[in-house]
Amino acid sequence: MPNILVAEGVSRWFFDGPERVAAVREVNVRIGQGELVAMLGPSGAGKSTLLAICGGLDMPDQGRVTVAGQDVSSLDSVGREKFLQRTVGWIFQDAGLLPLLTAEENVALAARIAGMPKQEARAAALTTLEAVGLGDRAEHRGNELSGGELQRAALARALVKNPVLVIADEPTGQLDGHTGGAVMQLIRDAADYGIAVLLATHDPAVAELADRVLMMNDGYVREAARAV
Fold first, then answer.
1. CB contact set of 63 (below 8 Å; sequence gap of 6+)
2. Which helix (H) or strand (E) holds 98?
């Protein structure tokens, strides 16, 4: 199983006045193709900062990140923009759909940004929405969808460009247990399809579908002995 994400010696710090505060401390993470890795930890542990670094939204102060062999840490602004558009799919706690666009238009927009022609993007959007169980809701606007439907559409938006890596930051944090479980099963299905997934959560139940569990606290990461 080839490694898709490799983070080596990654550290990130911020300044609070004259004081330097470490958010991520010398982290090493490897995630293989088709592997779902869940990261557990309390608020303030550094999970979101680490996700941002692994997904190219932020750069480490120390260390190196590669995704599918591409050195993300060394990308210039243009290279990073292309990387974000085409290589990584993101899912956040807030689905972040444009409320006046339909589910299909939201997903097709992501495909268009990734470089797909208009008709191909529309077809891919419809196919991906069907795959996440939203085929019959494709023409509904974001403000007409339930919380679970919004997260399914957000997952479709992340998957439509065929990313090699999906990063999910508390994707079930605003959902009830039943709806969150359904969304997590779709994320598990994406990993089984061959996509590498790194997911951060506060909920140990979410980690039950993971292949491995990482524990993060005070900026440090260690691997759990077994899934929680």
1. 7, 8, 9, 10, 11, 26, 27, 73
2. none
Q: What is the pLDDT of residues 93-116, one digit of tens each?
A: 888 899 899 999 999 999 999 999
Q: What global pTM score does this model have?
A: 0.92
Q: In this predicted structure, what is the pLDDT of residue 228?
A: 43
Cα–Cα distance, 215 to 101 (Å, whole number) = 38
Q: What is the CATH number of domain 3-87+163-223?
A: 3.40.50.300
52-81 residue pLDDT tens = 999 999 999 999 999 999 999 888 889 989
Helix (H) or strand (E) holding 172: none
Q: Is 92 exposed, middle or buried (0-12, 13-18, 19+ CB in 10 A)?
A: middle
Q: What number of CA atoms fall less than 13 Å from residue 92's CA on the CB side?
A: 8
H helices of 114-146, in order, are: 118-131
DSSP reduced 3-state for 225: coil
Instruction: Give the closest residue to 51 by CA, choosing from 199, 215, 173.
Output: 199
- Judged on CB neighbours under 10 Å (0-12, 13-18, 19+), 18 is exposed
Find the farthest-apart pair of alpha carbons in the chain and give their distance in angstroms, rounded: 55
SS3 177: helix
Query: Which residue, among 173, 177, 126, has the nearest Cα to 153 in the 3D structure?
Result: 126
Residue pair 193/186 in contact (Cβ under 8 Å)? The answer is no
